[in-house]
Amino acid sequence: MDGAHDMGGVAWSGPVAPEPNEPVFHAPWERRAFALTLAMGMPGGWNIDMSRFARENRPPTEYLGMSYYQIWLAGLERLMRERGLVASDEIDAGKPLHPAKPVAKTLTRDGVAAMLHRGGPTEREAKSPARLAVGDRIRARDIHPPTHTRLPRYVRGHVGVVERVLGCHVFPDSNASGKGEDPQWLYTVTFGGRELWGEASDPNLKVSVDAWEPYLERI
Amino acid sequence: MRSGLAPQPDIAEIATPDSAGGISTLPEYFAYPFGMTDHDHHHHDHDHSELSATELRVRALETVLTEKGYVDPAALDLLIETYETKVGPRNGARVVARAWADPAYRARLIKDATPAISELGYAGRQGEHIVAVENSPALHNMVVCTLCSCYPWPVLGLPPVWYKSAPYRSKAVKDPRGVLRDFGFELPAGTEIRVWDSTAEIRYLVLPMRPAGTEGWSEERLASLVTRDSMIGTGLPKQPHEVA
User: Fold this and answer.
1) Is the pLDDT of residue B150 over 70?
2) CB pair distance less than 8 Å for B64 and A91
């Protein structure tokens, strides 16, 4: 979706503001929101692409008005509501008002290290050969799906070069919609600064994105 | 416990909670709306009440999820402890120091970073597929995630607020030299700057240049030069005189 989360190249006033000696979390609630999000992945059963879409799929004023972990929280609540795990009235009340839904498994303290170590690798066995090779010139397709996609707006329609072939990976556009992993070949594609930003751009700038084959056409 | 999450002895740069369970480095609790800095956000009363509402909501949520049997508070505690005290940029510094000290390791890291990093015991969530990109006098690398906040957790920990902020996500791909000026340094005009936007599940680690004057240093000493920002590409390693 063409949402406020897709920020590459958007004019934004103000400098990047590093915080000296920054703590990992800035408030106790951020810690709990972070941990609840990680822990609920197991009983919730959603995937990372569904999580990302649940966070980004909201009006720009809302997305830009919330802090990072407030967005995580809003995304988590949405995922749980959609699956009937928790209803809004229960959060308002601060206690369960409806029976718990049976879940396949939950994260125990003993299971934390293994869950983190396992992670969620996305590379899958390829069922067909890659259609693109290193050095191929491509154009990023000018797509604007209302659903989740990982092709940023600032490269759409622009010409780049395939720099790496990264293997066959779970396709977020499908996976986020619950339509299956539909693995696709993934490439690092590199664009010149002037191709993306015009003649005034730094001639010594190159930008790459990692793009799945359906995002690209060879030229 | 798996090796990737084993306690590490030198995690001095990672913040630790104070005895009351709060954050000792900040007097109050702040959220950071996109585009605002912490400075902008101080002393606005309505923000405090808004944050209290968030804090109450998180507590309510945890209670509901616990009572419904979906989460185990002890597991939550361990998740937090892991990322506050065990998984952080000291891990990445070890990887960089090893690459500086051992040419064969450097070659493995550049060829296929995920198994090379795993040799040091770092692997897993948000680092399932890692690519290391090497700086040189002719090339400076910088990593961003314009779409969200993708970041190589096993080697750098959780991302700092600025990395997730709108100014960085918007500016890094268009004016990375301007970003570097925000961080206080100027890249020579002739140096190519290369920005890696983490749009898939590939995570990028910058291998910065080894500072001059460190010949014969041990890996441990070399690691003390490696800053988090130098592994993102928004900073440079410390110079030998800075670590004495």
Assistant:
1) yes
2) yes
